[in-house]
Structure formats: C-alpha cells, structure tokens
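Entry
Fold in token form

___
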Amino acid sequence: MLPTSINAIEAYSGANGILKKVKKGSLLIDSSTIDPAVSKELAKEVEKMGAVFMDAPVSGGVGAARSGNLTFMVGGVEDEFAAAQELLGCMGSNVVYCGAVGTGQAAKICNNMLLAISMIGTAEAMNLGIRLGLDPKLLAKILNMSSGRCWSSDTYNPVPGVMDGVPSANNYQGGFGTTLMAKDLGLAQDSATSTKSPILLGSLAHQIYRMMCAKGYSKKDFSSVFQFLREEETF
C-alpha cells in the first residue's frame, strides 16, 4: 500500500522491483490508491511474468485498520478473487469484487471524492452553527439524528471536543493526511476529465485541499478542513 502511482511503478518496475524476481503463479495484491490506468499497466507487466495482479484499495481509516474492519475494493480476474478474499479477509470485514483490474481503484476514487465533499460540508455546517450560537456537541447530536447525518459527522467529526478518539481530538494528528486526500481528488479530477464527467463539487474540494496543503495543513488529518475554514478570512 503505497502513497502514489509513481511509488507503485517503482516498487514493481524499478531496478530492484517486484517484477525482477516474481515467481510464476504468484498473486500480487496492490492496496495503493493510484490511477486506474497505472493499475492496468502493472497488471499487463505482471501477466507477462506468469503472475496475477489485483488492485485492492481500502477504506475505513486507521480505526478500521486497527480493528481489522477495513473495506477492500478488488479489481482483477474473477477466478482469482477467492484467493485474494481469503487473505484480505484477515484485515477487512468487507471484501468486495468490483470487476476487472482498475475497477477497485475506480470505486475508491469515487468514495474518497464523496468523503472529501461530505467532510467539507460537515465542517461548514458545524462552523456556521457554532457562529450562530449553537453548542457543537448539541449540533452534532442533532445532525446525527437528522437527514444531514454522514460518516464525517457521526464517526469522524472534524470539530475538536465533539468526539474522542478521532484526529480532531488530537490536534488533527494521525488519521488520513490532507496531502493524500488532495492526491486522491487529483485522481478523481483526472478520471473525470478522461470520461467527460462533471464533478463540480469534486473539483472545488480538490482546490480546497490543495490550498490547505499550501498553507501548512499538509501533514494534518483531512478533517482539519474545519480549522482551515475557521482561520480562512477570505471565504
């Protein structure tokens, strides 16, 4: 599980890469979140060596990783899915076959675009409510029993003091970095361009997370968008 497409290509095709020594019949599972086109190219190279490649990016964050409850989105030859499922089931409670190589990446990119949008929306709603005089814990409670409820509000709330055990309770340390979210939104942007799909909110989310990276938030968890909005006077 590597951060970028370049890292994955180097791991497989570099001077000391996997493809230099891979044994015929090996099952190679890549859980990086990278460009679907890169996964497809790597699969071709692996196939030439007589091995099997599957893309299996994950969702669920650090908490789900610790508890073994990740969701794996798997792309590859369907006949090999059972073998991958047996391994990935040790780390995840949901192992979902998505289709051919690259479809796991497609599912992950769509998920993370929605996650970014919903986190920004949650941060905006919480910030507005606080400025209107609402107690943040009360507002979160109301949102989570109402139609605005989402994972960002009920499991990973971005407001310090609302929840324990989440990055917002620890100065946004740990969790899923802003740099990685910006990278994933860039992948969504590239995919949207290649498929001519309108992603108005996805594009705006990409810009917001890129701005955060430029303003000192790159190493903080992506939920720090709440802090960014509180401090950003230009909005």
Summary: The longest helix spans residues 103-131. The CA atoms of residues 4 and 164 lie 30 Å apart.
